[in-house]
Amino acid sequence: MNSGGSFGLGLGFGLTPTSVIQVTNLSSAVTSEQMRTLFSFLGEIEELRLYPPDNAPLAFSSKVCYVKFRDPSSVGVAQHLTNTVFIDRALIVVPCAEDD
């Protein structure tokens, strides 16, 4: 427990809340619009980046997505989507430091 009486696990690593999640194990067929639609149900999205981008000339076996929410409490909710099958793979959602 931290000094505030809570564990602080749902907001990121340690005591500093984060507004960013990293989503891995994404299908190569996923688009940024699909990711925006999925995560917009959890909170207002400030920024979303998908790597490699939708218009990448080369084919990749998987993708990674970073989502920055306006409200840090959306990060804890988003983590509950871990192991949810999206297209053909189980998502892995983890909090991510904002300055990385």
Automatic annotation (TrEMBL):
One of its GO terms (cellular component) is nucleoplasm. Keywords: RNA-binding. PROSITE patterns: RRM. The keyword ATP-binding does not apply. It comes from the Eukaryota. Residues 19-98 form the RRM domain. Coiled coil: none annotated. GO terms for molecular function: RNA binding. This is Splicing regulatory glutamic acid and lysine rich protein 1. It comes from Piliocolobus tephrosceles.
